[in-house]
Design brief:
single chain, alpha/beta, Rossmann fold, eight-stranded mixed beta sheet, three-stranded antiparallel beta sheet, globular
């Protein structure tokens, strides 16, 4: 009899059976609105997880509050549907106590960037080995259509009937500024690319941050359609390829070059030598910041991996510090108790 294919071995040395998308699909009814972009993200995550070759019991999804935060119910792993904005904090505690686990944080632009902004910021700066997926639909969906921290200036919503007067946050810029060692962006409609980005993020050792442009077809339908629809995507999105010049267009005929410190579109660029070359592994954040500041309609929207660098991880440094403290000779208790340096307390 031919031995069954395996996905490697467990921590006990036992063969791990091959897992499929079905193994990561729970029996819970998915309660998102029909047509929601969340379905695409869930499907690509379930397709990607078997490729990690990790037992399901060693994976945990932590979420906060919002439409995206129902995610842990739908993945057949361990999970925690926590409280508003605190998923990064709970994930931090879990990773520190169980560093062998693969921990995902699932959040949204409202949950992660409003009440949870502080927690998200510190998780990224510490460089914990966790993967943060931020669903960005530029609206509060669960509470029925109020503007969110990422809603564009002037956006008319139920909570801004005359248009918003707040400048929107850019999640990718925030992640780069906070020091996340892996920063990427993907689109719910480009499922093949989304799956690859999720896989690369999960493989990275350190804090991975992935912003996913996700359509809310009920309260903010078509928020990204101007550059994500299939018929315009080639000319309005820039797929980042490490080590390659920044080109886009159906025939890759357009490119991005630098004029001083500012990016410019080079229409019908003939020579690669004139174009900016992507380097996600550079330790400096200059290039990643330039790309993160490229906004539609002045530029094609960059998607893919902006930054991927190695840096010391928080959980490893903390464990080393604890071990060092344990190895130091502890003072004996008896000499302290009965030594000459004593005090008497009088009433």
């Amino acid at each position: 009899m031919t031995a069954p294919a395996t996905n490697g071995k467990t921590g006990d040395g036992e063969e791990l059976p091959v897992l499929t998308k079905k193994d990561f699909t729970s029996d819970q009814e998915v309660r998102w609105c029909p047509g929601c972009g969340d379905y695409a993200i869930l499907a690509q995550m379930q397709k990607m997880l078997p490729d990690l070759k990790i037992p399901r019991e060693n994976i945990a999804f932590i979420s906060g509050i919002g439409c995206s935060s129902r995610f842990p119910y739908y993945v057949e792993t361990y999970g925690f549907h926590s409280i508003h904005g605190r998923a990064p904090t709970i994930a931090t505690g879990l990773k520190l106590t169980r560093p062998e686990l693969t921990v995902f944080v699932v959040t949204g632009d409202g949950d992660g960037l409003s009440i949870g902004g502080n927690h998200l910021l510190h998780a990224m700066r510490r460089n914990l080995d966790i993967t943060i997926i931020l669903f960005n639909n530029r609206i509060y969906g669960l509470t029925k259509g109020q503007f969110s921290p990422t809603s564009e200036l002037g956006k008319v919503t139920k909570s801004s009937p005359y248009g918003t007067t707040e400048m929107p946050l850019n999640p990718t810029r925030i992640a780069i500024a906070a020091g996340a060692t892996f920063v990427a962006r993907a689109v719910d409609r480009d499922t093949k690319h989304l799956e690859q980005v999720l896989y690369e993020a999960a493989q990275h050792k350190g804090t991975s941050f992935v912003e996913v442009y996700q359509n809310c077809n009920i309260f903010n339908d078509g928020a990204f359609a101007a550059f994500t629809d299939k018929d315009v995507r080639d000319d309005r999105m820039l797929y980042l390829e490490d080590g390659q010049p920044l080109r886009f267009g159906k025939e890759r005929q357009h490119g991005i070059k630098l004029n001083g410190f500012l990016p410019e579109v080079e229409w019908d660029a003939p020579e690669d030598a004139e174009l900016l070359v992507h380097d996600a592994a550079t330790p400096h954040t200059n290039l990643a910041n330039i790309l993160a500041h490229m906004d539609y309609p002045d530029f094609p929207v960059p998607v893919g991996i902006f930054r991927r660098v190695e840096a010391p991880r928080y959980e490893e440094m903390l464990e080393e510090q604890v071990q060092d403290a344990r190895e130091r000779a502890a003072p004996e208790f008896e000499p302290l108790l009965h030594g000459s340096e004593t005090w008497r307390v009088n009433d």
